[in-house]
Amino acid sequence: MAVDTHKLKQHMWDKLEEGPFIMIGLADGSSHSEPLTAQLDKDQVDTIWFFIGKDNRLAKGGSVMAQFVSKGQDFFACLSGSVTVDNDPAMIDKLWSKPAEAWFPGGKTDPNLALLRFDIDEAELWESDMSLTGKLKMLFGGKINASEEGSHAVVSNTIV
Length: 160
Known about the structure:
- The protein is an alpha+beta fold.
- The protein has one domain (5-155): Roll (Pnp Oxidase, Chain A), CATH 2.30.110.10.
- It is 22% helix and 36% strand.
- It is built from 4 helices and 8 strands; from the N terminus they run H-E-E-E-E-E-E-H-H-E-H-E.
- The protein has helices at residues 5-18, 89-95, 98-103, 132-140, and strands spanning 21-26, 34-37, 39-40, 47-53, 62-69, 75-85, 113-127, 151-155.
- Strands 1, 2, 3, 4, 5, 6, 7 and 8 form an 8-stranded antiparallel β-sheet that branches.
- It is globular and about 40 Å long.
- It comes from Sphingobium herbicidovorans (strain ATCC 700291 / DSM 11019 / CCUG 56400 / KCTC 2939 / LMG 18315 / NBRC 16415 / MH) (Sphingomonas herbicidovorans).
């Protein structure tokens, strides 16, 4: 069966809107991941943005791995790609919000503000839309069949 990448991306975006926190870290073998709040732009579905401080370890850019667990803990994603600082004033205006302002009291021109651009190259997605029977088996220690476990997809190219 063919994977509908557009539908998968939309589903992931919906989950990110409900709970926008992502663990992201440089894929350098020594840096720890950190939680950041995703800023979503519907016009750029293969890019996730973050407001960070210029002194944040991610500001140097490079290859990253990111993990996301939905608010309902029924959707999981592991994303790989690269990050760069992209302080485009138009994009900062577009993504700016009251929660961002809480972290940067100087507003959009705060001297420590940096807009981090995460370009997604590959994603692996899981959804645990387990059947009622599967959930009962899990509660009582029964064996879960493949038809009861949910879905999984690897998307190596997120461009529709």
